[in-house]
Design brief:
The protein is an alpha/beta fold. It has 2 domains: 84 residues, Winged helix-like DNA-binding domain superfamily/Winged helix DNA-binding domain (Arc Repressor Mutant, subunit A); 228 residues, 3-Layer(aba) Sandwich (D-Maltodextrin-Binding Protein, domain 2). The chain is built from 10 helices and 14 strands. Strands 3, 4, 5, 6, 7, 10, 11, 12 and 14 form a 9-stranded mixed beta sheet that branches. The chain has a 3-stranded antiparallel beta sheet with strand order 9-8-13, with no helix packed on it. The chain is rod-shaped. It starts with a helix and ends in a 24-residue tail after the last helix.
Length: 316
């Protein structure tokens, strides 16, 4: 098999009219070009160039060889271009996994925009609340919501979103029961809890001072939609991430309770198996999610306050 670099030097010498001109064109020493062309002739066992101190001309065989060598270089360049184009344009299949609430709230509203922006990209989203081993199961990206730092697993982690965990209730509930003026007042209010053991809410004010509150257990559910529906129905006060409550807050079905207090934060982190070898499709999805989901972080979000103070967040 001939050395493609030798073909390139031979073609450059022919098209430049000599070794010296090719040397200037390629910024390669003249002696190197001459030696490599001689090695090419030796490998072919054929004379390609008649060269003297004053002349540089192709043999008849050299002219035929030049024609095919030039074509071979063009094809090699075309092959390289195909690969580079494939790597430059987001395409192929990107597999994502997320929990059910994350898929519904953070991904579903935005993935159609991503798919339209990159028509050659094929997205596969697996929404599940089971633990997913993204390396063993072949996923490209996972979105994980957590109240404590993720373990150092060797996976690449990129923080997308930090949300406050807030207290909300229906306007009708507040009208009937009154608005609590302090965390201590929650002891006389109905609470919608995320679990039987989540009866104590650990709350923080803007200065980071901590108070504990124990509302009356009115309902327990480990699913956020059920809790929000119960709150909208006026059954009590619920403590959930701000993003889960956003739609109901914007429409006025829920309002903030104790707006100067929150129950810590929950973080959404994008996890990928490794940095190296990423196809542009994966990079495009990562950057899109950083832009769209990361842009949802509330201004002034207090990412440094203690995490997960209100207990387990349902479905996250």
């Amino acid at each position: 098999m001939l050395n493609l670099n030798d073909l390139q030097l031979f073609v450059a010498a022919v098209e430049s009219g000599g070794f010296a001109a090719a040397s200037r064109r390629l910024a390669v020493p003249k002696s190197t070009i001459s030696k490599r062309v001689a090695a090419l002739e030796h490998a072919l066992a054929a004379r390609l160039i008649h060269r003297t101190s004053r002349s540089f001309t192709l043999t008849e065989l050299g002219r035929d060889f030049h024609e095919h060598a030039r074509a071979a270089l063009i094809e090699a360049e075309a092959a390289e271009t195909i690969v580079r184009t494939r790597l430059a344009e987001p395409s192929g299949t990107v597999r994502l996994t997320a929990s059910i609430p994350t898929g519904q709230e953070l991904l579903a509203p935005h993935l159609p925009t991503l798919a339209k922006a990159w028509p050659k990209l094929r997205l596969q989203l697996d929404v599940t609340d089971r633990f997913v081993d993204i390396v063993q199961e072949g996923y490209d990206i996972a979105l994980r919501c957590h109240s404590a730092p993720l373990p150092d697993s060797g996976l690449v982690q990129r923080q997308l979103l930090v949300e406050r965990i807030i207290l909300v209730a229906a306007p009708a509930y507040i009208a009937a029961r009154g608005a609590p003026a302090s965390p201590d007042a929650l002891a006389s209010h109905d609470g919608l809890l995320t679990g039987p053991a989540a009866g104590t809410w650990r709350l923080f004010d803007r200065a980071g001072r901590q108070r504990q509150a124990e509302p009356l257990s009115r309902m327990v559910a480990n699913e956020s939609t059920a809790l929000i529906s119960a709150a909208v129905a006026g059954l009590g006060i619920v403590c959930l991430p701000e993003g889960m409550c956003r739609a109901a807050l914007e429409t006025g079905r829920l309002i903030r309770v104790l707006p100067d207090w929150h129950a810590g934060t929950i973080t959404t982190t994008l996890v990928i198996p490794h940095r190296r070898g990423q196809l542009p499709g994966v990079r495009a999805v990562v950057e899109f999610l950083v832009d769209r989901v990361g842009g949802l972080s509330p201004e002034g979000g207090e990412a440094a306050v203690p995490q997960g103070a209100a207990g387990r967040v349902p479905g996250r």
